[in-house]
Amino acid sequence: MNIQEQAKKAEALRRLHQGPRILVLPNAWDVASARIVEELGFPAVATTSGGVANVLGYPDGQQISRGEMLEMVSRIAQAVAVPVTADLEAGYGTSPEDMQDTVKEMVAAGAVGLNLEDVTGSDESTHVEVGLQTEKIKAMKEAGASLGVPIVINARTDIYLMSIGPAETRFERTVERLRAYRKAGADCVFAPGVKDAETIAKLARAVEAPLNILLMPGVPAPAELQKLGVARASIGSGMMRAALGTARQIAKALLELRDHTPLMEGSIPYAELNALLERRKH
User: Fold this and answer.
1) Inter-helix orientation angle 31-40/270-278, to 10°
2) Residue 268: which domain range?
3) String of b and e for 34-47 (b: at least 16 CB within 10 Å)?
4) Beta strand spans in 134-216 (E)
5) Which CATH number fits the domain that encloses residue 149?
6) Residues 33-66: pLDDT tens digits?
7) Alpha-carbon gap, residue 266 to 210, rounded angstroms
8) If you ran DSSP here, which 8-state letter would residue 28 be given?
9) Judging by beta carbons within 10 Å of its beta carbon (0-12, 13-18, 19+), is residue 25 exposed, middle or buried?
10) Is it the case that residue 169 has pLDDT exceeding 90?
11) Number of domains observed in the structure of the chain
12) Which of 71, 191, 209, 227 is the most buried (most CB within 10 A)?
């Protein structure tokens, strides 16, 4: 990848967090889904770690290797002209040095931004100490700068999503962590699992940084999130899982010898999909 081109894309991605319009990201899991997102006019493509892991045969949650994840990110980055931000889970390592290696490989893959989680497993016992997490963020920023690419970090805390710690202190602890991540160099902060409008608005004011909210059942629509002060909204693996839900319904209809055609309404025509992929960046 051309470093100067990537640097420009990184700055473009950073500006998208500054409003006035909320940055909405329907996360892609392969080249075809990424091209659909780009063709619709979205100014950036975000990947979903869960989606990529699942299509490659892994459960979500730090199970896929860094190399396999970045192989798909590379394919996506080569296929689209807009900036790509990659969901890289907890960074595929435990130390700041590991984070630097991850950024170097991410930039080589063509991405200019990333999500970084602060849990390394499936329960709260893997919640990374805030001091270590901030060191990881600093190391990532330094690695990007050393390569000439001012990478965009979306720093995430899973306090709400994983129900970590006492419910009555979750808001304060979330704010504390996200402010620390911002101070360490994060460009955007992410609090998945927060659903109600009042808490979202309060959080958007308190974190003193662009805020990312995960679009999930019970969360206000993007237009409402924008009014609440949210800078970025992403859907994670939701779109991929919806596509697989449709696939399961069609397969079930076939198994039961029923008419599958109503379930295929809205599908992309064969020729249109081929043309979409022929119009890839290269």
Assistant:
1) 90
2) 3-278
3) bbbbbeeebebbbb
4) 152-156, 188-190, 211-214
5) 3.20.20.60
6) 999 999 999 999 999 999 999 999 999 999 999 9
7) 35
8) B
9) buried
10) yes
11) 1
12) 191
